Structures are given as structure tokens and as C-alpha cells.
Amino acid sequence: MGGLFGALNNSLSALEAFQRALNVAQNNVSNAATPGYANQVATFEAQPFNLSGGLDGGVNSGPTQSTDNQYADQAVWAQLSAQGNFSAQSSALSAIQSLFDVNGQTGVLGALNNLFQSFSAWSASPDSAASQQGVISQAQALAQQFQSAAATLSQTTLQLNQQIGSTVDQINKLASQIAADNVALSQGTTPDPNVKANLEASIENLSQLADVTVSFAANGSATVLLAGQTALVLGNQQFSIQANFANTGSGGNPGAVPDAQILDANGEDITNQISQGSLGGLLAVRNQVLPSLQGDGQQPGALNILAQQVADRVNQILTSATTTTGQAGTALFTYNSSSPVDIAATLSVNPAITAAGLAPVDPGPPQVGNGAALALADLGTSTASGDQINGQTILQYAAGIATQVGQQASDAQTGQTLHTQLLAQAQSVQTQISGVSLDAEAVLVLQLQKGYDAAGKMVSVIDQLSTTLINMIPNS
Amino acid sequence: MTPQERCQSAEAGLEQARRMMADPRPERIEQCVEILGQVAGILENLAAGTSRDWDPAIHLALHRIQTGSRMLAMEIEQGANLVRGWMQRKFGAGYKPNGLPEFAEREHERVFEA
């Protein structure tokens, strides 16, 4: 392409190259705040210079190169997933934690302590109307606490169902956006940076919701797998997942709340695949923590076990005893015994009992005037095998529930704090290395590596010193 | 400085190091190592002191320092793993027969001056 036309074309080509560079710069400015956006670098390719052959030389813009680094992106996505998981768990557990006061002042544990204290006061003066009424009042308060705890757990289950459903909807919506971006990317000759930025923002948002594995094709389109196994997006195809809360085949306890399920596009249960992201956190609380407390198809749940043991043992002691006037004792508590998962929710004070009808006398032999009341006062800390639950006294078991829930909430909070920090760290490294030259990158990673090695050694010294100091304190 | 003040100072140092580690630039990590060195010095002084008649609050503070240092260790480990993986991905050339990563020889590394 010689002559004037060739020279003009050459100039046009150079102008186009600069225009393209300008567009890239514009993209960088406008997308600077988009999550996942990496600097675009315009490349200039030298054109062959051969007048005799019709090649005019000059420059032409080559394909735009994205300097994003999938390795850094994957690290950020992994931390987003972990942070989403702990954040969801922490939020869900905070609602449950308030039910189980580990100090024993309020909640079920507080009401249990108060009931045993009222039994103790009654054993000191079995004929006192005030102490008899004290027992009835504290029994009503305990029943109320069990019912309230069961209702709150039930309410929390419904709230988690809504959150799981909403999270699944968000996952499907983001998958749909990724599929649409894939279509746009597969149609262009070079990846449109705006589409690519949208795609990466969608992947970051998706990472917070679930553990996703992403791989990119040469045209920039993304394949997204849930937990590395279930396809969410393949090219332009999106595979929707769905939440199911009506799994009928989940066990034999009548009235039990079925576990939440996540089904793939073919209706297959993929719940166990999902362990990260906010969906993983919500499922962990919904399918593990809540059933361990309120029961499910396979287990009665700790709250129901505790309610039944307290009610049964109190009733057994009272119905084996007699009143001060020689009448047979009456049971203090009633509950719906048709389902082991319904005990705490239906525990109440027997409407047939009156304060005067409480039976403090152990008929023996030998007969003890306050024997039954004394046995009830000691019931909470009794180590007799019939009084214990799984080798623990009633109060130990109740405190154990509070401790377990408190520990889970604390672990979730710690995990959330840690992964927020780790996320910030991964994002910082991603930002630093994105867009620098390979040599600069090599120097940077070596400097970082050296710094991490030194910091790691110093932290190890601090750990050893703090451990030594703790061990030096008497009784620690 | 009282033992209580030493613990507070060590905790503050650890917290500052954790904040710096969230934005790990080489110069910041260097500062972070210096701060951690100061924290270690504070704890060494505490251990060298003769009195062990400490307030229970010091016991709790030491546990917080221990937990804080372990969380920081996890952050450092993640950062180091991230950088190692990065190096291997960008500059790696497969694996040696013993399974360790092999790094490509760079041009300037082959130039020797007498």
C-alpha cells in the first residue's frame, strides 16, 4: 500500500492506535472503583516496513491486555467466601446466644437455678404457703422460658429459611449476569473491558455468597462451578439452583423441622457440597446448630432433652411423695409426649396442681417430712444416674448448652474478624501486583517474602514469650 | 512501667502490627517487624522481672496477647503462602524430581562478572 493513500492509511492507523490507548485510559478511570477491575494496558505493535511490498510500517494497536492476575483474584474470592461464611454464622448465632445465658442469670439456665432455689426454700418450710407458691411461680417461669426458647428457635429457623432462599435467588441472578457477560465476551474480537469488569464484579459478589471455582476461556468468558462440582455457568448457559425446605424424607420424629436443602438444576441434593460463603454459613446454623438444640427428624435436640429430664424427674419425685395431709402427690409439669421434638415448646405447669397440693413428704420408710422437697432441691446437681443426662448433672448439661452456643458464636465472630483481615490483605496484594511489570513484580514478591519470613519468626517469639509468661503465673 | 502498662503497650503494638499486615507493602512489613521486635522486648522485660504477684487483669491481657499473636501468625502465613504461590505461578517452571517447585533461570542470573 504505497503512495499517498498508503501514507494516509498509516497515519489513520497510528491515530486509531492512540485513540484506542485513550479509550483504555478512559476505561481505567471510569472503572477504578469497580470490584475486580484490573488496569488495562494498550499494546502497540510495530507494522512491517516494506515500501516495495506495499507495507507502510508505523504502529498498530494490538489486543488490549488485562493485567489482572487470576491467582490474586482466587485468593480474594477464597477470603470473601470464608468471610461470608463466618459473617452469616455470627449474625444467625447472635439471635440464639441470647437465649442461653452462660452466667445462669437469665434464660433457661437462670429459670432452672431459680426453680431449684425455690425447692430449697420449700424444703426448709414445707408448710409455708409462700414457699409453696414460690415453687409454682418458678415452675411457671421455667416452663415459660422453655416455650420462649423453642419459639425463638422456631422463628430463627423461619428467618434462616428466608435468608437461604434470598441468597439462592442472588446466586442465580449473579449466575445469569455472568452468562450474559459470557455471551457478550464471546461475540467480540477482543474482550470488552467494561464487560470483563462487570463479570469480575459479579464473581466477587458471588464469592461472598458461596464457594465458587472459576476458570476463564481465552475470550475472557467464565465457567463457574459451585464448590468445584456443580455447574452454575457454562458459557452462555446458566444452571439455577433452588432451596427446598419441605424435605419429607428426613427422619421419624413427628412435627420435626426438615433440614434445608439446596438442589441443583436437575433436582439433585447438593447441600453437603456447600460449606463456604454466606450460604454455607446459613446452612451450617440452619442444619447443624438449630437441630442440635430444637431437634430434627433424627434427634430430639438438647433443649427438649433437658425439658423432658427436668419435667420427668420432678414429676417422678412428686408423684412418689405425699402431701403433709397424706394425699398422693401430683405431677408439677405436663408436656406433649407424642413427639420428642415438641417437649420444650409444650412444657407447662400442670393445671391440676395447687400450691397446697405440692407433696414434700418422702413416705420412706423411714418417712421424711421434707424428703421429696430435699430431693428436688438437690436434683440440679445430683450425680445419681437416673438424674443425669449423658453423664452430666442437669445443671451441668444446661450450662453445657449455653457454653456450646456461646463458643460457636465466639468462634464465628473470631473467624469473621480474621477473614476480614485476611481479605484486606489479599486485596492489598492483588492491588499492588496488578499492573506492574514482571521484573517489578518479581522484586516485590521477593521483598514481601523476606518481610513475611522475618515477621513470622518474630511472631513465633512473641507466642513463646506469652506462653512462658502465662505458665509462670501461679494457678494458670 | 508497671506490668499492666507493659501489657497494654504490647497489646497496642500487636494491634498496630495487625493493621499494618492488612496492607502488606514491603516497607510496611519492615516497620511491622520492628514493632513486633518491640513487643517481644516488652514481654522479655516482663519475664525478667522478679515479681509474679500480678493482677488477674494481666493474666487476661497475656491470653489476649497470645491469641493476638496466633491470629497474626495466621495472617502472615496466608500472606507468605499467597506470595509463594504467586512466585511459583509466575516464575515457576514445573517441579523438580523431589517434588519441589522449579524456578526458571532468568537472563541476568546467567551473567557472571570476573
Q: What report would you give on this structure?
A:
The complex is a heterodimer of chains A (476) and B (114). Chain A has eleven helices and 14 strands. With 476 residues, chain A is an alpha+beta fold. Chain A has a four-stranded antiparallel beta sheet with strand order 7-8-9-10. The relative contact order of chain A is 0.12. In chain A, a hairpin with a 2-residue loop joins strand 9 (230-234) and strand 10 (237-238). Chain B has 114 residues and is mainly alpha-helical. Chain B has one domain (3-110). Chain B is 68% helix and 6% strand. Chain B is built from three helices and two strands, in the order H-H-H-E-E. In chain B, strands 1-2 form a two-stranded antiparallel ribbon. In chain B, helix 1 (3-21) runs antiparallel to helix 2 and helix 1 (3-21) runs parallel beside helix 3. Chains A and B meet through helix 2, helix 10 and helix 11 of A and helix 1, helix 2 and helix 3 of B.
Overview features:
heterodimer; A: 476 residues; alpha+beta; four-stranded antiparallel sheet; two-stranded antiparallel ribbon; 14 strands; B: 114 residues; mainly alpha; two-stranded antiparallel sheet; 3 helices; elongated; disordered C terminus
Please give the number of β-strands of chain B.
2
Helix/strand/pairing class of chain B, anyone? mainly alpha
Number of helices of chain B: 3
Order of helices and strands of chain B: HHHEE
How many structural units, i.e. domains of chain B? 1
Structural class of chain A: alpha+beta
Across the major sheet of chain A, the strand order is 7-8-9-10
- Main pleated-sheet profile of chain B: 2 strands, antiparallel
Q: What does the secondary structure layout of this molecule look like, with pairings?
A:
The complex is a heterodimer of chains A (476) and B (114).
Chain A: H1 3-30, E1 40-41, E2 44-46, E3 49-50, E4 55-56, E5 59-61, E6 65-66, H2 70-97, H3 107-124, H4 129-187, H5 193-209, E7 212-216, E8 222-226, E9 230-234, E10 237-238, E11 242-244, E12 261-263, H6 277-294, H7 302-319, E13 333-334, H8 343-346, E14 348-349, H9 371-378, H10 394-433, H11 438-472
Antiparallel strand pairs in A: 1-6, 2-5, 3-4, 7-8, 8-9, 9-10, 11-12, 13-14
Helix pairs in contact in A: 2-5, 2-6, 2-10, 3-4, 3-9, 3-10, 4-5, 4-6, 5-6, 7-10
Chain B: H1 3-21, H2 26-48, H3 56-91, E1 92-95, E2 101-103
Antiparallel strand pairs in B: 1-2
